[in-house]
Amino acid sequence: MGGKAKDYGIPGTTVFDGRMAQKGYALNRMCYSFNSADNRDAFKRDEEAYCRRYGLDDEQRRAVANRNVLELIAAGGNIYYLAKFAGIFGLDVQDVGAQQTGMTKDAFKARLAEAGR
């Protein structure tokens, strides 16, 4: 993954650029596999083996085990693929957004409703 991360001038935000796409290729490939119910079941049976099957590195495996969206993004995860991962645990996009912002789901939903007014 050589090279230094580009500073996009957005403090606290991981930008999914070409460098991050390369970094997260294995993680995103694994998450894409969750389109299949059989693959979701295989993951639930043995997460560690499933992560190894897709070649996740230590940082990515820790982020998966921690169920932490910000860690997954920092490990190269693309939110569109991570939504497939979150779905395994019954989480929706609002759950993910709440986690990203450090809010409760109810507070996040209220913020969205207020922004829509």
Could you describe the 3D structure shown?
This protein has 117 residues and is mainly α. The chain has a domain at 18-90: Protocatechuate 4,5-dioxygenase, Chain A (Orthogonal Bundle). 65% of the residues lie in helices and 0% in strands. The model has no long low-confidence stretch (mean pLDDT 90).
Number of DSSP E strands: 0
Taken as a percent bin, the fraction of beta residues is: under 5%
Enumerate how many helices there are, as a single number. 9
Cα Rg: 15 Å
CATH architecture descriptor text of the domain at 18-90: Orthogonal Bundle
| CATH structural fold name of the domain at 18-90 | Protocatechuate 4,5-dioxygenase, Chain A
The 3D shape can be described as globular
Low-pLDDT ranges: none
The overall pLDDT average reads 90
Report the helical percentage: 55-70%
Structural class: mainly alpha
State the CATH class of the domain at 18-90.
Mainly Alpha
The CATH homologous superfamily name of the domain at 18-90 equals Dioxygenase LigAB, LigA subunit
**Multimerization status:** single chain
Q: Main β-sheet: number of strands, strand sense, barrel status?
A: none
**C-alpha end-to-end distance:** 43 Å
Give the SSE string. HHHHHHHHH
